[in-house]
Amino acid sequence: MKTRSLFGRLWSGYLSRHKPRIAVAAVLMLTEGAALGLFSWMLQPMFDRVFVGGDVGALGWIGGVIFGLFLFRGVAVVVQRWLLTQVSQRSIADLQTDLLRHLMTLDAAWFERHPPGSVMERVVGDALAIQNVWKSFLLGGARDAVALASLMAVAISIDPLWTAVALVGVPVLILPMLVLQRYVRKKTRALRATAGERTVRLSEVLNGLDTVRLEGMEEYQAGRFRALADRIVRTETRVATGQALIPGMVDVVTGIGFVAVLATGGAAVASGDKTVGQFMAFFTAMAMAFQPLRKLGGLAGLWQQANASLERLFELLDARPSITSPALPKAPPAEAPDIVFEDVHLSYGETEVLRGASLTAPAGRTTALVGPSGAGKSTLFHLLTRRTVPDAGRVLVGDTDISEMGLAELRRSISVVAQDTLLFDETLRENLLLGRDPDESAVTAALEAAQVPEFLPRLPLGLDSPAGLRGGNLSGGQRQRIAIARALLKGAPILLLDEATSALDTRSEALVQDALDRLSVGRTTLVIAHRLSTVRDADRIVLMEAGRVAETGTHDELLARGGAYAALWRMQFREEAAAGQAASAGRG
Ligand code: ADP
């Protein structure tokens, strides 16, 4: 396998497209860094010609050049920051968008291993970590490197021997720096993983706030959060200390260099072998080199941090979806098709969920799936929408195996209305259109058919009212009717209803049922229902038991057969009658 460095991938995927900006900024940095060298070099004529030589006239041009250098630096800093902030922000925004796009292709099994909180921490937290490091790199790294090089050039031009003496301590730095870098990287990896756990905890608590309160788990949850937060504090402190140790060591080595140069150079100036100007220029160059050297040392640690986060992000991008579209997809049906499950087997781990299920839902008709919970009814829906794939057997839509169709096209031809439809925290109109752009008359017709006008006038802004978090501003029945209008607008030839009315009160149920009846006209409809009374009029009823089809027929046929369906019907009928009697006894 071709291994590319993380930085290589970042560069070719996200940074190289900003080459012109990076190039301009780099030129500015180069000149800016070189300006520092020029400044220290200007000190030699200043001391030797003006202060020592008494040539006051030279003061003008020397001062002018020095001011010019600083003016240039001031302008260069602003322009660079402007350019490079654009580059770092845009490249990370691109990376984050790619991540989200990619995440949406990954299947349920992957998300079971990676809970939403930890994925969010990567997309937000790790991306931010990279951005911060990246910014300091771009903004400082190149300039510091050039400044260091130009200052060294001045130092060497004055006296190579002094320079060598000043740098005696540097080799001592190499080994500890390597060790420290590994340490920082390891700790940062642990830190990012713990940050992921913290976000998971936070999202679990906030999503389960009701349970937390009712069970009085506040202290327990806070304690668990605190433990994670403490671990982050400890690791963060270690990373920061490890990182500071590198520039810290640079400090010590520079101190040694200073003393060594003073000892050797001081004597040379006193004896007249070197001028004061030469010594001052050299000394200034060394003193100024100290700052970029420190910063570059610090960058080494930051780089390790960025690497740990980059690893985590590319790991996400490299996760491959197991359910994909074929290379040459066949078109899904435009008209209502037959749907056939052919001897389908499926296991989740050790659990056999489907054990040779075979059934046909005829085109344009309503087929009901009934049977005890856990029988595998919802799993059939998952297979049909290819959220999961069978271990054996086939699923055909209009004579074509769905694995030969494009995923997006297949899903476009199916509308699902489930027990509790999730609305996004946007306006009702946005929830209805989902980015599509149908004409206003189609919207009105869909709303009418879905019985939405029955409650719309009671909302403050009509269709432009916000749905609230998870659609919380609407009642269950209202949410279902928005979902039905949405399905009508989608116009898909296949309709899947998963307990669509079971969470509703009797009045809402009647309204929603009426809307569903209109929705299912001319579509191949599969209905999962617990209450048999809601599906007695279905064209075909399929009774599932333990992953297989036990009985198939119309309501009357199945009753006449006197098998499992008939038994189930009698049981529910007795329960309903008993409930009815209890209710009327209560009233009487
Ligand atoms: P039904 O809709 O008839 O109530 P389902 O199709 O939802 O039944 O589930 C059938 C069985 O599959 C159940 O025992 C359920 O626990 C199991 N199951 C469903 N999804 C998963 C999953 N992602 N991982 C493991 N087991 C699952």
TrEMBL record:
It is a multi-pass membrane protein. SUPFAM superfamilies: ABC transporter transmembrane region, P-loop containing nucleoside triphosphate hydrolases. CDD domains: ABC_6TM_MsbA_like (cd18552). GO terms for molecular function: ABC-type oligopeptide transporter activity; ATP binding; ATP hydrolysis activity. This is ATP-binding cassette subfamily B protein. It holds the Pfam family ABC_tran. One of its GO terms (cellular component) is plasma membrane. It is found in: Cell membrane. Residues 339-571 form the ABC transporter domain. The chain crosses the membrane at residues 21-43, 58-79, 137-156, 162-180, 244-270. Keywords: ATP-binding, Cell membrane, Membrane, Nucleotide-binding, Transmembrane, Transmembrane helix, Transport. Residues 23-305 form the ABC transmembrane type-1 domain. Its main location: membrane. PROSITE patterns: ABC_TM1F, ABC_TRANSPORTER_1, ABC_TRANSPORTER_2.
